[in-house]
């Protein structure tokens, strides 16, 4: 009798462990029906009652049977891609039924090239969501206004889509966010003034949009910020001086904007910054002569601005300058000798007013 009880109990546990929540299965079925993936057949695995095993890209909490992850990447090392010898392609849209998966932590629908439609606004009710990655599709519409409700979100990647509208004000409430990639969309308006409230952010990638206004001063509070890419926007105003003294900032890309004023000394005297691109702006004044033995730039691009004066002599004291581009400015006078100048090509200096000496013609 005891034995029979134990067997029944074990069976019950096994069933409970394996079974997918019927309401989650129903939501996944509707989600699937609004998408079409013609070449790999991944949705052909989404059959049978147990959505927690063998449904490609679906993971569940093993004790509750609730769906926790939808992880569908159109470009990966997975064997189905190798076998099909192609990358993924998917059309259709993201069904709002995805919002019924209330235990969802991961929603990745990345690099399928052609998923269109809008991000369902109800997505902001998925309070357990940690990763939202929809990169590389054709998603339109706006970023849901209430995005800031996703308090556990660490990754927000909506890059390479056709999203319009402004960056919602509520975005600054994503207090756990570490990566924000909204590049290559059609966002307009300003970067929120209180953007720096996002204290956990280490990568801010907003390039290739139509963002305007100036760089918010609150960014100076983002003490984990390592990578700031605001290139290819309509940003104006000057480069804030604090940018050179952020604790872990190493990459700053501001190329192709309308930024004016002078280059702050701190930016070029920083020994933490390694990649700085200020190309194609409206910067003026002299290039600060503040380089030193700890200067280490893998790339420093100041080309296509209105910089005047001479090439700073202190550049010769730098520990390392990989790629240097000072072309298309109004610089004048002799190019200093010694490292790194003996390694650089004429293209780094061309189209200035009156630069001379190696690698250009003698003075
Ligand atoms: C999703 O939730 C809504 C609202 O609770 C409900 O009406 C709908 O039937 C659910 N969808 C599925 C597929 O269970
Ligand atoms: C800097 O930005 C310009 C314009 O986007 C680009 O052409 C150039 O290659 C960049 N420089 C470096 C060193 O990456």
From TrEMBL:
InterPro entries from the UniProt entry: Leu-rich_rpt, LRR_dom_sf, LRR_N_plant-typ
A Pfam family: LRR_1
Family annotation (SUPFAM superfamilies): L domain-like
The Leucine-rich repeat-containing N-terminal plant-type domain, residue ranges: 22-61
Signal peptide start and end residues: 1-19
Protein name, UniProt field: Leucine-rich repeat-containing N-terminal, plant-type
Keyword Membrane recorded: yes
Compartments reported by the entry: Membrane
UniProt keyword list: Leucine-rich repeat, Membrane, Repeat, Signal
Gene source species: Dillenia turbinata
UniProt GO cellular component terms: membrane
Claim: DNA-binding is one of the keywords in the record: no
């Amino acid at each position: 009798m005891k034995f029979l009880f134990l067997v029944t109990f074990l069976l019950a546990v096994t069933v409970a462990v394996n079974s997918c929540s019927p309401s989650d299965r129903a939501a996944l079925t509707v989600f699937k029906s609004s998408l079409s993936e013609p070449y790999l057949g991944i949705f052909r695995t989404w059959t049978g009652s147990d959505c927690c095993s063998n449904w490609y890209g679906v993971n569940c909490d093993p004790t509750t049977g609730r769906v926790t992850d939808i992880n569908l990447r159109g470009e990966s090392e997975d064997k189905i891609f190798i076998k099909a010898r192609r990358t993924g392609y998917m059309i259709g849209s993201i069904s709002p039924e995805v919002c019924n998966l209330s235990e969802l932590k991961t929603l990745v629908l990345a690099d399928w090239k052609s998923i269109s439609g809008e991000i369902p606004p109800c997505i902001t009710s998925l309070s357990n969501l940690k990763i939202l990655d929809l990169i590389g599709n054709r998603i339109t519409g706006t970023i849901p206004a209430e995005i800031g409700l996703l308090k556990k979100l660490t990754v927000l990647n909506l890059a390479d889509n056709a999203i319009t509208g402004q960056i919602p004000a509520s975005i600054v409430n994503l207090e756990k966010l570490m990566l924000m990639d909204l590049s290559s969309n059609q966002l307009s308006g300003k970067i929120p003034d209180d953007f720096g409230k996002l204290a956990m952010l280490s990568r801010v990638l907003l390039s290739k949009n139509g963002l305007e206004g100036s760089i918010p001063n609150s960014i100076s509070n983002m003490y984990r910020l390592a990578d700031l890419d605001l290139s290819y926007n309509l940003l104006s105003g000057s480069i804030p001086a604090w940018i050179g003294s952020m604790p872990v900032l190493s990459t700053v890309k501001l190329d192709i904007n309308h930024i004016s004023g002078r280059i702050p000394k701190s930016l070029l005297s920083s020994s933490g910054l390694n990649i700085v691109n200020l190309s194609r702006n409206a910067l003026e004044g002299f290039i600060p002569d503040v380089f030193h033995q700890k200067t280490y730039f893998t790339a420093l691009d100041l080309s296509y601005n209105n910089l005047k004066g001479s090439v700073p002599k202190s550049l010769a004291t730098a520990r390392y300058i990989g790629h240097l581009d000072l072309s298309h400015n109004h610089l004048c006078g002799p190019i200093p000798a010694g490292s790194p100048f003996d390694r650089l090509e004429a293209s780094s200096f061309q189209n200035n007013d009156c630069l001379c000496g190696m690698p250009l013609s003698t003075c």
